[in-house]
SCP-2 sterol transfer family protein
Amino acid sequence: MSDLIQSYIETLTPKVAGTLRGTAKLVITGEGAVMLDETGARACDAADEADVALIASDAVFRAILSGDQNPVMAVMGGKLKVEGSAQRALKVSGILVG
């Protein structure tokens, strides 16, 4: 597992543990993927199934996590791609920013 993926796991586990229903996958373009669920975050394969997948570069995800990028605007601007439920994507993005 790369240091980058490990840093996402360490950052996201406290944010999602006990708050996220279902599964969400963050696919960091060219780097790997992180699965989020009620237990926290873990490394996964980009092909693993999830209720929703958010796909973007590391820079976009870092900007979302820091609050510098609004996730909805990232989708509208083509920086963030959503596969699956848009409603679930909004809930996940709220957790990531919060």
Residues 3-89 form a domain with the Nonspecific Lipid-transfer Protein; Chain A fold (CATH 3.30.1050.10). The mean pLDDT is 94. Residues 3-16 form the longest helix (14 residues).
